[in-house]
Amino acid sequence: MSQKKALIVDDSTVTRLMIRKIILDKYPDWDILEASSAEDAKSLLTDHQDIDFFTLDQNMPGTLSGLDLAEDLKKNYKNTKVVLITANIQDAIKNRAKTIGIDFVEKPVTAEKIIPHLD
Predict the structure, then answer these.
(1) DSSP strand E in 31-80: where?
(2) pLDDT in tens, 63-109
(3) Alpha-carbon gap, residue 48 to 60, rounded angstroms
(4) CA-to-CA distance for 105 and 113, rounded, in angstroms?
């Protein structure tokens, strides 16, 4: 099996570390990239187009939200799993995630919430 690559986008270092640990505990050979904002993620993607799994926070510094980034990602990564992991649990956020075609996970981050989305 070829090595997979994930991009974790969250402004919280602790959250990124937790998601990284959950992924690597399940799949130790995955390559993990991290970004602290949607803009940072977009610039990372210019050098790394082969992403297999994205996790996005909703509220981050900068002009783009996680859902804004998700809309862009779904255009360029049609078959790639995108998961919005956020404490922002408003119905409008959940509905927009569903409309875009991405999964929604409510924080706090736990292995039980993340692992089902990795397969």
Answers:
(1) 31-35, 53-56
(2) 999 999 999 999 999 889 999 999 999 999 999 999 999 999 999 99
(3) 21
(4) 7
For residue 55, the cross-strand partners are 8, 83
Q: Work out whether strand 53-56 and strand 5-9 pair parallel, antiparallel, or are unpaired.
A: parallel
C-beta contacts of 76-79 below 8 A and 24+ residues apart: 77/51
**Nearest-5° Cα angle at 51, 50 to 55:** 170
Nearest to 84 by CA among 96, 75, 76, 61: 96
Question: The whole model's pTM is what?
Answer: 0.96
Using the structure block, give the residue that is written with the tokens 């959950």.
22
Length of the chain: 119
